[in-house]
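Help wanted!
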Amino acid sequence: MSQEFIKKCPECGGINLFINKDKGEVICKDCGLVVEEKMVDFTQEWRDFDSDDGESKRRTGAPMTYTQYDQGLGTEVGQKADLYKLGSKDKNKFFRLRKWQYRISTAIERNLKLALAELKRVSSYLKLPKSVEEEAARIYTLAVQRGLVRGRSMESVVAGSLYAACRRHEVPRTLDELSEASNIEKKEVGRTYRFVTRELGITILPSNPADYIARFSSSLRLSAETQSKAVEILEKAQKAELTSGRGPTGIAAAALYVSALIHGEKRTQREVADVAGVTEVTIRNRYKELLEKLDLEKDIKKTKKKKKKD
DNA sequence: AAGACGAAAGTGGTTGA
DNA sequence: TCAACAACTTTCGTCTT
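Answered by r_m:
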């Protein structure tokens, strides 16, 4: 196992790293950056196969999960059915405990319970993988704990968390898609997304146009060659610095459009624009840039000539 | 007739004073 | 907080297939 230990804070270079094993986080004491989340638990895992007291060292149980509002570990203080066993002294104690437990749990847990139901709904609507759903739930849980939901609607924070989780796992859905699935305005999703990621110190890698290709390509029913050609074009485009600052979907759409032309699988600009959620004009602009900088015109002409022969 | 192209004006978000 | 700005959209007229 080659697990690299982080010794310096990548943000400020400080060496005052605080390791919180319970939360699985490493936090820089100097600048507050969350250096590493969900780190591996390095404490000794006790395994004991053949001694008599092995039972007590075994760790079992259902896997812990963030999509369960109490992470599947909730405790209920007593059931009414137990009451008949207790004397009056114990009954008092019982009620005090129950009240106490009720107080501490309500606010946050009730919120989580509702929110995670919504999260699951949206997630399944978008057919997101389980890992993304988990990540989103984790992000949302953190957000609630830090009181970031105050003043925002629960749904919008859910949508923001999901969007962030998608980005982190490189299974990008567009803001439009999230907006549609969650019934939250696009700009609101974007706003809470930015807010949540900033407040939680989640590093956001700029989304890569190539990640969109596969999905767009399949909804346009393009061949695998066209798809890989599009990725190829994208790589060249990135080297020519055509991608920075532009919307990733527009670039992906244009690359796919060109690639389709080259392989004689023509799609109209409108068709491509629709699946990518951009306008024809944007595709045209990107398309024009691609032709100019990447010298692709000859490839297109080739396929045109071929067609004439047929 | 449908699609491609381009110009011009409008929109929402970022940035820097 | 405001203005400048870039990316993107909307709309519309013209050209091409």
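OP: Thanks! One thing I noticed: Chain A has three domains: 1-59, 67-205, 209-309.
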